[in-house]
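Hi everyone, sorry if this is the wrong subforum. Our group has a chain we'd like a structural model of before ordering constructs, and none of us has done structure prediction before. Sequence below.
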Amino acid sequence: MTQGFPRWSLAGLSLLHAAVLGGAAYLLPWPSFTVFAGLAGLTAGGHLLTAALALIGARTRAVAFRVTSLLSLLFLGYFGYAALSSGLYVNKIYDGVGLPILAAAIAAFLVGVLFLLPMAVWGLAITGGFRPRTLGDHKARKTVGTGAAITLALLFIGFMIALNASQARADWTLAADEREELEETVQLAVAEARAAKRGTVGSPAMFLAAPIECRSEPRAGVATVVLTYLKRSEEPKAPAQATMLCFQSDTLEQALTQASRELADYQAEGEAYIDIVSSRRALPEVGPLLGAVLVRPGVEGVCDGARCLLPWQLFGLDAFTEATNVAALQAEFGTTPEALRKHLKSEGSGYAGLTAIETASFSVSHDRNVSAMRHLRKNTTTLDSPTMKAALRGAAAFVVSSQVKDGRFRYTVQPFTGAVSFDNFSVPRQAGTTLALCDASAYHAKAKDTAKQSLAFMETLVKGNAERGAIMWPKNANKGQLGSTALPAIAYLTCREQVGGQFDATITRLTNTLLAMQREDGAFVPLFDAANDAPISGKDPLYAAGQAVYALVLLEGAAGDGLPRPEGLSKAIDKAMAYYSGPYWDIPLRDFFYLEENWHCLAARTALTHHRNDQYERFCIDYMTMKSRFIETEDSGIDADQVGAYAFGHVFPPHHAAAAGFAEGLAAAVAVKRARGLSVEEDLTTLRRTMKYLLHHQWTEDNCAMCTRKLRIPGGFSENVASPIVRIDFVQHAMAGMLHGSEALELLD
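Answer:
Right subforum, don't worry. Here is the predicted structure as tokens:
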């Protein structure tokens, strides 16, 4: 019956499917058991049995293959249902982000189709189709060619991907032992150079956007050292000038000696940077899709012959965010050859002819102490009370310095050029920043005054009647968004301890509006028509529902202290907690992934003192359990300075604000777990990783020599290691995450 039936090819492909499906069953869903895990594990077991029977040549391998193929189709059907129904649901309830999530769900399903369907179709075809025949008959054997062709096509695609990956390998790199000795080599080279003056607050910034010209292109056999420093001006009393020089020699020691002499003879003040080219590779033409990630963000620079831009220059030029802009996800990433050539002042087109370089970077202090650098940061981070307090003081100072006369906070600042923008001003960001500043008011003397000015500004945006009001922006708007009312309400309630009861009337109007925006099932509508005093139904805006629950929980805790308690407040909170911990997320996607529900965790923590809800607390714990799986660890294979980041992979740089938001949520979940008598040791270990990550990536006086002196940059946070832009909400979330994370770790008084 099984004469001529595949054996070795079947064993190999079945083992591959068993490994992938077994890994999916074990790794993907975070609960202990799900339908997905069960079906994936069962199908993996079927493939494993098929492979074993094929290896020993058992006749029953055909039966096992057929049953496993049917299991694969069953699993694929469930996968399609879970992915598409979840994607459609999220698209239905969420505005903006819903469509990209649906697209991602469809893409995930199509990947599953490409992996599972060819093998399943081959298995059914070779064993008689959907109406079984003798396994060895002529018609069944004819289908072997079809199955084999599909399999070969998939293998060919994999081969082409591997070929493209091999083209991206370095054609020259420093040996591991040479890299380990670089810091000592640099220290020895600069030790004898005369010390410079200590840098001052008014020192010029050292960032230079122009490419460096070397004598020849960096390559094997030529040691290339780039020195960046502040050079004394030949004119009396003229300020020092940022200078970049390239030294090349047969040996690294000779090139470093030349750089050291330059420092000794001409350095005016402050620290200097030394970049040693440590690897080089030619960039292949791989098309726009792979081309966007061809130059590793924040890690590699690029050269056209002897003209080069160092990694930190591409970072400062924001060159790693020019390929794609996904507005709904606020994601910009990728390089383009056109932009790179423009920055390089290079003619030509495409990547061909360009090379990527990696550098080992070091800072040289004014008194000639050398520290290894990566992404303009030193490699050591200490997690202790003094360090955390300094970080919080810096973040609070940045926020205070970002406020302008009308009470608004500027939205973005480019840390190297000083360019600022108020575009995309958002009331929730304004309110969130105010909330975080009130929480951290102990760390800056002007925090309370700054918060009061912001609260007064937002009060001018309230529209409605004497009983209810909603905050609207721009000022000519007549419909208020849920988040633009809920988050300011949180800010007013949180800051009340610092600013007193002067905004109590506004708190009452805003929270009355939130109660009016609640649906019968406990959810909230997205809009409020102030002119007609009526809620407007529609899709849920991201974040806002959790903010609404949080605001009502805060109001319940504060009511009675000169603040009126609305009728039905407790019942409204019960309904909201029941909805968001129940039917709101009752879909298959819950086994794998939630959207941003941090505010629900903050609400659950605040409710611990006066409004406990078991299911709502478990919702917070489940959500943070899911999120914890995306935190990079020391075993993740990621760069050491990305350990603790919240990331979905290693291709795109993780966002610092995502890690900060995670720290906020996990600190709240730790409080909830402690109240429930649950162990938090694993959570605290994860939190320590993320706190170290945030500390490492904060701009400080110690790592901001490249920063502009026009505005305050220390204390801020850039988007990630690929984009320098500092946004006010990046700093807001980082400050809140560091504050509450430190409290959970008992690092603060």
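For your construct planning: The chain has a mean pLDDT of 88. The CA atoms of residues 46 and 67 lie 8 Å apart.
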